[in-house]
Design goal:
Blueprint: H1 2-17, E1 20-24, E2 27-30, H2 46-51, E3 55-60, E4 71-77, E5 81-88, H3 92-97, E6 101-109, E7 112-119, E8 127-132, E9 138-145, H4 155-166
Amino acid sequence: MRLAYLTAAVCAAAVVLAGCSETVDGQAVISPLTKERLFDPCTVRDSVVQAAGADPATRDDNPFSSPRPDWKGCRWTADGYFISLFSTTNTVQQFRENDYLHDFQTVTVGGREGLQYLLGTWDPPHQCGIAFGSSQGTITLQASKFVDNKSSTDPCLLANNAAPNFMEVLPP
């Protein structure tokens, strides 16, 4: 009887973290992360967005223009750039393997390790992101300068300045 309760407790914990789909040879099999179980970036409180330097009233809950099967995202306007927060079923390793992303650096934000990267081929760069692993997908915060923004400000500086404000609301 205790084993049944223990098995149920382990499966319940797995559901919270990633979900149980079936049992194979007496072992719980964790089902893959789905879009429905991803962290929803648009649930971030306005006070967090504002503290990060963006205007909560500019929230765009469709930053991709067309639906993406493995992503959720939200974007806000700041002074000359966008702050975007995404969650995805892609792993941090898949970010490293993406040819569009480059100049990877390990960074620590609020005690949490992340993978900083530049996007695209802009010279100087216009977009920088920081990806964090979590129980609800890989979460990435991006700073994207407006196309007409001629400022020499490093977009990674913008991302790193905004990121600490989001740490308290990101899932572990």
